[in-house]
């Protein structure tokens, strides 16, 4: 089981700017915890996400020598990917591809067809740089726009990504719409149909529903999970204020119950939780 902690997702919509030095201290602590991957920042328009305009500065302050954790940065277009590719410390370049045409237009001002051109070019870029693209299928568990959704549609998208050579695909619960009934069938079908692709779950949840969601994905074959300490961030479009990112500490709890060996550093985790509360508590 792989855990991807996503401070980027927790930070990106935060209303007050988190000082770069504070970000660096938090990220360095998370690197010491020992997660498989850290979704640490993004290379997108500073106008769109001002909170992460300092991603390159934050990256320069990271102590990567003592950590086996790999870095992931999110981009929204080829230009962002080209910026990310200039930093060989970044192992993964993440791109959000929506299965909802309406959301793709709202999120990146592109159609799905145009976004797939970006995916193709980013894949070509990664082949040159030795990095790896992670494609997030956003609105992966349904959407509020009445756009078509089904496990078959997710399969059609994955087939296109497979033909391009994409090997990590994360189903993303953009608005907290997922339930066990919409989580289990896609993972069950996709993991069987594409055994050479690593499928991830980027789930959003209320405090009461986290376990049933993780359990549904795990039982259906998913072994890659995204979370954010404290459950902060995640769901700007959700009407329910309690809906946020899957809390990483809950994923750790679940993995322990399943006998999964994560090899995390408990002292660093405790320190990261403390810093997390200093940054986010009081404004959630």
Automatic annotation (TrEMBL):
It comes from the Bacteria. The keyword Ribonucleoprotein does not apply. The keyword 4Fe-4S does not apply. Residues 1-270 form the Pyruvate carboxyltransferase domain. Signal peptide: none annotated. Pfam families: HMGL-like. InterPro entries: Aldolase_TIM (IPR013785), HMGL (IPR043594), PYR_CT (IPR000891). CDD domains: DRE_TIM_HMGL. GO terms for biological process: ketone body biosynthetic process; L-leucine catabolic process. GO terms for molecular function: hydroxymethylglutaryl-CoA lyase activity; metal ion binding. Keywords: Lyase, Metal-binding. Belongs to the HMG-CoA lyase family. This is Hydroxymethylglutaryl-CoA lyase. It comes from Hymenobacter psychrotolerans DSM 18569. The lineage of its organism: Bacteria, Pseudomonadati, Bacteroidota, Cytophagia, Cytophagales.
